[in-house]
């Protein structure tokens, strides 16, 4: 990974830390097996990188203005796209046609003639030779918080900020995605890619994430 990419990641890490460093539970953190699990915030970013939903849950978190949240969403969206392009991926599986067939005759091993209208064969058009799918950033952790990212098939990103001790954050953020599908996408008055203002979605998310 290049030096410039690490610089962008450091800037993102610093920006994410701004809203969490003033939490009293974090400032007075003592290593203890009975530390309470804390969910700090949930952000939803549309496929264009725009912030369409933000909600904080733990009291005492330092407040950010709307511009800071927009910068946070846009920065993470860009770094997430970069991480997908530079993420190492295993080589594609070899083509089945490259395996010799011992039972075939010598004449069968000759390449079949192509019609003039056919383009030359290449691996780009062969689905088995395509580059495997990469997900980008899924988790980012510091001493104060953990960021878990889930991207839906349509490109919507769900960012869940929790304490580092919070277990099963991948399950929690996927459950938030299910609520988004049930209460936002099924709402006939909601327009795609627009800010989410669905009262029932607010209630069910708060009831799920804010638990004793």
Secondary-structure map:
Layout (H helix, E strand, L loop, with lengths): L2 H16 L5 H4 L11 E7 L5 E6 L9 H21 L52 E3 L4 E6 L5 E6 L6 H15 L15 H11 L3
Antiparallel strand pairs: 1-2, 1-5, 3-4, 4-5
Give a structural overview.
Strands 2-1-5-4-3 form a 5-stranded antiparallel beta sheet. Mean pLDDT is 73; it is low at 1-10, 19-35, 104-109 and 115-124. The chain has a domain at 36-87 and 131-209: 2-Layer Sandwich (Beta-Lactamase). The radius of gyration is 24 Å and the shape is globular. The chain is α+β, with helices and mostly antiparallel strands and 212 residues long. The chain is 32% helix and 13% strand. One of its GO terms (cellular component) is Golgi apparatus.
Considering DSSP H and I runs of 4 or more, what fraction of the residues is helical? 25-40%
Care to count the β-strands? Answer: 5
Class based on secondary structure composition and strand pairing: alpha+beta
Largest beta sheet: strand ordering: 2-1-5-4-3
CATH architecture of the domain at 36-87 and 131-209: 2-Layer Sandwich
How many helices in DSSP terms? 5
Model regions low in confidence, pLDDT < 50 over at least 5 residues: 1-10, 19-35, 104-109, 115-124
Biggest beta sheet summary: 5 strands, antiparallel
| Morphology call | globular
- N-to-C SSE string, H for helix and E for strand: HHEEHEEEHH
Query: What do we call the CATH topology of the domain at 36-87 and 131-209?
Result: Beta-Lactamase
**Beta-strand content estimate:** 5-15%
Average pLDDT across residues?
73
- Rounded to the nearest angstrom, the radius of gyration is 24 Å
CATH top level assignment of the domain at 36-87 and 131-209:
Alpha Beta
N-to-C CA distance: 41 Å
């Amino acid at each position: 990974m290049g030096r410039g990419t690490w610089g962008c990641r450091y800037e993102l890490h610093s920006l994410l830390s701004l809203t969490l460093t003033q939490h009293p539970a974090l400032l007075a953190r003592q290593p203890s097996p009975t530390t309470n699990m804390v969910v700090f915030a949930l952000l939803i970013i549309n496929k264009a990188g725009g912030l369409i939903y933000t909600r904080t849950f733990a009291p005492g978190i330092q407040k950010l203005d709307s511009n800071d949240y927009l910068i946070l969403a846009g920065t993470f969206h860009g770094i997430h796209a970069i991480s997908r392009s530079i993420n190492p991926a295993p080589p594609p599986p070899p083509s089945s046609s490259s395996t010799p067939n011992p039972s075939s005759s010598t004449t069968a091993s000759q390449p079949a003639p192509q019609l003039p209208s056919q383009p030359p064969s290449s691996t780009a058009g062969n689905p088995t030779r395509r580059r495997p799918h990469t997900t980008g950033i899924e988790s980012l952790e510091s001493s104060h918080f953990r960021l878990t990212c889930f991207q839906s098939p349509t490109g919507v990103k769900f960012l869940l900020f929790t304490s580092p001790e919070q277990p099963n954050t991948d399950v929690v953020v996927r459950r938030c995605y299910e609520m988004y599908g049930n209460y936002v996408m099924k709402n006939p008055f909601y327009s795609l890619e627009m800010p989410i203002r669905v009262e029932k979605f607010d209630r069910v998310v708060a009831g799920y994430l804010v638990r004793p």
